[in-house]
Amino acid sequence: MRTPQRIVSGLLAAALLVQLSGCGTLFYPERRGQLKGQIDPAVAALDAIGILFFVIPGLIAFAIDFGTGAIYLPEGRYSVAPERLQDALGSDGRVDHARLRAILQEELARDLPLDDPRLIHRDGNASQLAAYGLRPTA
Questions:
Q1: Quick one: which of 10, 37, 11, 9 has its CA closest to 24?
Q2: Gap between the terminal Cα atoms of the chain
Q3: Which residue of 19, 43, 48, 79 sits 20 to 30 Å from the alpha carbon of 26, by its own alpha carbon?
Q4: Where do transmembrane segments lie in this chain (predicted)?
């Protein structure tokens, strides 16, 4: 096989492989696991382009995105303003988990298990707080 044919074959195989994985799953991995919601028109259009050029891989891309839930727009809010989180800091600069849980439940309308033993706790530093415009109080 000549070199140009190998290059073209490799590019075609790569294009088909990308189509098989589903656009939403590649671009928005954080959306996986959603069961329902409003369909993201950008992801649907990209999957439809896959059907236009390669019928079977495009259908597989749609199936993967619907199966994983990556085709749906995220519902609600997933972030809280840093100023609001300032209320969860105690006078010694430590995070009060009860207050943090109450703030998150109020802002996100979700009850997050902050006392779960699998939760990983990491200590921050003043430069991380400064990036969000916060000042350490301790």
A1: 37
A2: 70
A3: 79
A4: 42-64
- 119-136 average pLDDT score: 69
Owner of token pair 């069961």: 35
SS3 assignment for 33-57: CCCCCCECHHHHHHHHHHHHHCHHH
Taking a C-beta distance cutoff of 8 angstroms, is the pair 22, 64 a contact? yes
Q: Which long-range contacts (CB under 8 A, 24 or more apart) does 120-125 make?
A: none
Instruction: State the average pLDDT for the chain.
Output: 76
Report in angstroms the alpha-carbon separations of 130 from 84, 95, 111, 126: 15, 17, 28, 6
Q: Is 71:39 a contact under the CB 8 Å cutoff?
A: yes
Q: What is the pTM of this model?
A: 0.45
Nearest Cα neighbor of 58 from 66, 50, 70 is 50
What backbone torsions phi and psi does residue 79 show, to the nearest 5 degrees?
A: -140, 160
Query: Residue 72: which of 22, 107, 117 has the closest Cα?
Result: 22
**Cβ(111)–Cβ(103) below 8 Å:** no
